[in-house]
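Issue: ligand-bound run for N,N-dimethyl-L-histidine - logging full I/O for the record.

Environment: standard queue, default settings, no custom constraints.

Inputs:
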Amino acid sequence: MQVKTQNTHHEDILDEIKDGLKKSPKRLPTKLFYDEKGSQLFDKICELDEYYPTRTELKILDDNIEEITSYFGDDCVLVELGSGSSVKIRLLIDHLPTLAAYVPIDISSEHLLYSNKCLKADHTGLNIYPLVADYTKQFALPKINKKYKNIDAFYPGSTIGNFTPEKARSFLKRIANTCGKNSGLLIGVDLKKEKSILDAAYNDSKGITAEFNLNILNHINALVSADFDINKFSHRAFFNEDVGRIEMHLISQENQEINIADKVISFAKDENILTEYSYKYSLQDFNKLVEGIYDVEKIWVDDNRLFSVQFLRAI
Ligand code: AVI
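Outputs:
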């Protein structure tokens, strides 16, 4: 299996961190949640009783897989944006018997190689073209040495919600351009719902989401030799109904100064750092978001209308 690498040259993460901490309110790049520990904590979040998105999306896929895969058509190339969802991708691949090629894209080469080794073992004839790339930036698909009819992408988990709507639109435009006119996009989109359900999903009783949020500080300590003490910050997450998003923050428990490389950054007691947005959409909101880029061909939802899986077609 040949692995291609693109666009992952290290932009200066230190500058990104310092720039974010100069803003008011302070903020940190959401992508820094996912070091090894953070990825393990995220896997645990996906299994929590309160965190409904993962199991709900999987059930929607499982219950409707025949109909869902009929939208992909024969001899397609399946592009997976972020290849962390091996159960879901296996379900798709098992129901796409004429699949021409599978292109998993992930920023982590270890992750990509490991999950594809497992997949290859069960699907010996499958043409896999792993691509190490940051799919949130411009990338080019690898050259596929097999005839195919269409390209269809898969973007599960409602990760689209972690972009602001403006950035989500530019991201979707880029994916539609890269995969081409008439390409499909099967996407998971978390829906607006009662505030209490959303608040609980990001404030679980075992404190795993709090640990996940605080871990960003340990990751930064290791990355850029900073000296955050996670015991001096606390987790705060809530659904902001006015703007339709979960906001995750870290709250400074006291007045403190943090060294980050050659800089000293002051935090006042109760000052917050924004670490993540997770936008929730109504079906109408999401239709509006993709307008002019994709047509929404089909929407599947669960019985409680918590989550949606949508098949979009690039215009
Ligand atoms: C990855 N992403 C879709 C998750 C979400 O729900 O926005 C990340 C997450 N943050 C806290 N819990 C889960």
